[in-house]
Automatic annotation (TrEMBL):
Family: Belongs to the glycosyl hydrolase 35 family.
GO biological process: carbohydrate metabolic process
Provenance organism: Rhamnella rubrinervis
Top-level taxon of the source organism: Eukaryota
Residues spanning the signal sequence: 1-22
Cell location: Secreted, Extracellular space, Apoplast
Catalyzed reactions per annotation: Hydrolysis of terminal non-reducing beta-D-galactose residues in beta-D-galactosides
Protein name: Beta-galactosidase
Length: 826
């Protein structure tokens, strides 16, 4: 590894790769072995298509600074092969460049090819054309599927081999994964599932890549494939074979977010506890899912109803900023774990139980004794006598003692700064007023039948209701279903109270009868489909019925999720009631004309907006189906850029022709379930520690700086539901307030971001301060020197480092362990 790490930046990759010597990767029951040495692997997931290629070096470097030695990614089949045998490895799909960026930071890589990835990614990473091949069945014994899977897997493996990226060739990839969490659903497929799983294993092995293959959540993976664990905690999980190490491929650092749902948070204390517990119980490899979650650009969000933000409450936020204190608290843990690597991977292990869920584990190796003091009790702190010394272990925490005597880390004692991020406005040239956007607009045309019975831009005509993804091949979220019904003077339905009844598996439905919009219905988050009923007025003669079905991301998880219906599967009926009599006209087998996508999508209004006509006057608001366009200048500086779309309804946004994803600020998060205080103690699950109740479920959208030009930039919006663009603003995200609460014996690092400096110190107390960030108060003993020391050392600086001890900050006159609390402004 080292031979390729530092020098490689200076020289051409291809040339140097050849000079790198092979790295031997093997494993035994204890750990993955690199060049014969057992190693602990501290890995973090960063998915390359969820950021930009220009962001990768910074994200990976922040991973390295955070103490990781490995970066893990999935490979996204539908992104790379959007049409059968037509490949895309450009821009942020340049997976080779991504792996080489990992290599140039001197880190290892884990390549999870899948090619099923789940990942809250559209259709779990499967291309929709795959589904449209006759006779195919996914993820089971099926020749057509297996041939396609082999074909894509081969493309990826050979690409990596050609670039010499496997460790056996001197590259960074130390492990590769085939399939993904198949063990969770294999039972559904019976004997064919087992056959398929073995086929996957054999295919993987046949590539001879010279590094081990893993299968996650696959306890019966055949030798030599390694089975690994995914989950919130994996300490209780143990491999079923005794020749493989205990490895954790997905430790959920937080959780993803849905439209209409609140923001999930997992505390730094609980995440650190889960990791420490895993290593205490013999684990040697663990991966944060996610370390950087990022953004679901374009239409890549899975679903249905997964937001464009894939922040995941990961150690790096959606935009790549440090998510503090999580990043820093884990960083300290990583450095402690790395300092005791030899003992963890080779030591003699002894675990002693102290009752009440308290356990001490020691690892003894060549005269070094390392101890983990673990307290899994959710409510009560524990004090134990270990080898003649008394130790207090807070509830739901683990202390690490590299010499079994001095506690150097406790998962519940956070000594890193908390950063409160703020959005700052994009100022106009005078530097005073926020920059005001000017808008122009044009209408999207509703599809309709012309006099001659045809529909502009239509494709298919058939006497059946078809699945949306089979017709659109997922080239758009939108599919029009168009039909007509003739009503004559003697029809029983005439004169009745008539309603249009549509049963749909789509996510949103807009219905039009005789050119009039009669209603829009949005599915409930988590439910597949709904029934739409609205009153209609019928004419004698021809009545045109136009239905627009909208998808918001295709399903990505579950047995046979690929067959989940989307679009209008029917029935579609006119239901009339007259004198308690019901008259039903079923339209399901009528002649249906299909039109995929919007007129503006076909014209690519977003690609070169100025080559089309736009209106500069009479800007409509609250009107559905409007395209909006504005020109803006890029915010100065280097802080990440976001656009605040509050006021708009739902649609998609493009910046200089690049889609920044679906937007839906009018979708409000559930009112209930949020907690002001989040107790890190007790098992975490995605419903714990929610915020943002009742607010827009996603208001800010990431605009990567690489999408922006120095001068004029174009933003195009397609507004589907109706909204008001007047409040749209571009902003930057940076650290506003920093707080810290560090224990004696640590060094506290405070830092701002983007070139800003600490402009003021609002609070500093060394002794026994009380409260939390924003509401700190002085405690009963207090050093008179602390505030002045911090003011002098930090004010005007981009960062400062404070040794938290009596010598520097004291005297406090306290007997207890002193703490330092600081609140400062960037
Ligand atoms: C992939 O499929 C194409 C035909 O579509 C074929 O030419 C090629 O050889 C296949 N590659 C592999 C590795 O199976
Ligand atoms: C946690 O501690 C309390 C109080 O000592 C005790 O009653 C309880 O049984 C403990 N729980 C576990 C799971 O050990
Ligand atoms: C979808 O794919 C099918 C078969 O590959 C093709 O016939 C059809 O035209 C495609 N539809 C669209 C809207 O691209
Ligand atoms: C009117 O419609 C009804 C039902 O569709 C049909 O039975 C009848 O023959 C039609 N009459 C005329 C005059 O077209
Ligand atoms: C079994 C399970 O729920 N697995 C999920 C673990 O988390 C990842 C990331 O959120 C998902 O992709 C898996 O579906």
């Amino acid at each position: 590894m080292s031979c390729c790490s530092s020098i490689v930046v200076l020289l051409a990759f291809g040339f140097l790769a050849a000079l790198c010597s092979a790295i031997d990767v093997s494993y035994d029951e204890r750990a993955v072995k690199i060049d014969g040495e057992r190693r602990i692997l501290l890995s973090g997931s960063i998915h390359y298509p969820r950021s930009t290629a220009e962001m990768w070096p910074d994200l990976i470097k922040k991973g390295k600074d955070g103490g990781l030695n490995t970066i893990e990614t999935y490979v996204f089949w539908n992104a790379h092969e959007p049409k059968r045998r037509e490949y895309n490895f450009e821009g942020n799909l340049d997976v080779v460049r991504f792996i080489k960026t990992i290599q140039s930071e001197g880190l290892y890589a884990i390549l999870r090819i899948g090619p099923y990835v789940c990942a809250e990614w559209n259709y779990g990473g499967f291309p929709v054309w795959l589904h449209n091949i006759p006779g195919i069945k996914f993820r089971t014994k099926n020749q057509i599927f297996e041939d396609e899977m082999r074909n894509f897997t081969t493309v990826i493996v050979e690409m990596m081999r050609r670039e010499k990226l496997f460790a056996s060739q001197g590259g960074p990839i130390i492990l590769a994964q085939i399939e993904n969490e198949y063990g969770n659903i294999m039972w559904k497929y019976g004997a064919d599932g087992v056959d398929y799983m073995n086929w996957c294993a054999n295919m993987a092995e046949s590539y001879n890549i010279g590094v081990p293959w893993i299968m996650c959540q696959q306890d019966n993976a055949p030798k030599p494939i390694i089975s690994t664990c995914n989950g919130w905690y994996c300490d209780h999980w143990n491999p079923k074979r005794n020749d493989i190490p205990k490895m954790w491929t997905e430790n959920w650092s937080g959780w993803f977010k849905n439209w209409q749902a609140q923001d999930p948070h997992r505390t730094a204390e609980d995440l650190a506890f889960a990791v420490a517990k895993f290593f205490q119980s013999g684990g040697t490899m663990q991966n944060y899912y996610m370390y950087h979650g990022g953004t679901n650009f374009g239409r890549t969000a899975g679903g249905p109803y997964i937001t464009t933000s894939y922040d995941y409450d990961a150690p790096l936020d959606e935009y790549g900023n440090l998510n503090q204190p999580k990043w820093g608290h884990l960083r300290s843990l990583h450095f402690v774990l790395r300092s005791i690597e030899k003992a963890l991977t080779n030591g003699f292990v002894r675990t002693t139980s102290y009752g009440n869920s308290v356990q001490v584990t020691s690892f003894s190796y060549r005269g070094q004794d390392v101890c983990f003091l673990g307290n899994s009790n959710q409510s009560s702190d524990a004090t134990i006598n270990y080898q003649g010394t008394m130790f207090t272990i807070p509830a739901w925490s683990i202390s690490i003692l590299p010499d079994c005597f001095n506690e150097v880390y406790n998962t519940a004692k956070v000594n890193s700064q908390t950063s409160i991020m703020v959005k700052t406005p994009n100022l106009a040239d005078d530097g005073e007023e926020p920059y005001r956007l000017q808008w122009s607009w044009r209408s999207e045309h509703f599809a309709h039948k012309k006099k001659d019975g045809t529909v502009d831009g239509s494709g298919l005509i058939t006497n059946a209701l078809l699945d949306q993804k089979a017709v659109t091949n997922d080239t758009s979220d939108y599919l029009w279903y168009i039909t007509s019904v003739n009503i004559n003077k003697t029809d029983a339905i005439l004169g009745a109270d008539v309603s249009l009844h549509v049963v749909t598996s789509g996510h949103i439905l807009h219905a039009f009868v005789n050119g009039v919009h009669i209603g829009t219905q949005i599915g409930d988050n988590g439910h597949y489909g709904f029934t739409f009923d609205r009153k209609v007025n019928l004419n004698v003669g021809q009545n045109d019925i136009v239905l627009l079905s909208v998808t918001v991301g295709l399903a990505n998880y579950g047995a046979e999720f690929e067959n989940a219906e989307v679009g209008i599967h029917g029935p579609v009926q006119l239901i009339g009631t007259k004198q308690n009599q019901k008259v039903v006209v079923d339209l399901s087998e009528n002649q249906w004309i299909y039109k995929a996508g919007l007129a503006g999508e076909a014209k690519q209004l977003f690609a070169d907006p100025n080559s089309h006509k736009w209106h500069n006057y009479g800007l409509p608001t609250s009107r559905m189906f409007v395209w909006y366009k504005t020109t803006f200048k890029a915010p100065l500086g280097t802080d990440p850029v976001v656009v605040d779309l509050l006021g708009l309804g739902k649609g998609e946004a493009w910046i200089n022709g690049q889609s920044i994803g679906r937007y839906w600020p009018s979708s409000a998060a559930n009112e209930n379930g949020c907690s002001y205080n989040c107790d890190y103690r007790g098992p975490y699950s995605s419903g714990k520690c929610l915020t943002n109740c009742g607010k827009s479920s996603q208001r800010w959208y990431h605009v990567p700086r690489e999408f922006l030009k120095d001068d004029a930039n174009e933003m195009v919006l397609f507004e589907e539901l109706g909204g008001n663009p007047w409040n749209v603003k571009f902003q930057t995200v940076t650290v506003g307030t920093i707080c810290a609460n560090a224990f004696e014996g640590n060094t506290l690092e405070l830092s701002c971001q983007g070139g800003r400096v600490i402009s003021d110190v609002r609070f500093a107390s060394f002794g026994l301060p009380q409260g939390t960030c924003g509401s700190f108060t002085k405690g009963r003993c207090e050093s008179p020197k602390a505030f002045a020391y911090i003011f002098n050392h930090c004010k005007g600086k981009a960062s400062c480092s404070i040794p938290v001890n009596e010598l520097t900050l004291g005297p406090t006159g306290c007997k207890d362990t002193n703490r330092l609390a600081v609140e400062a402004i960037c």
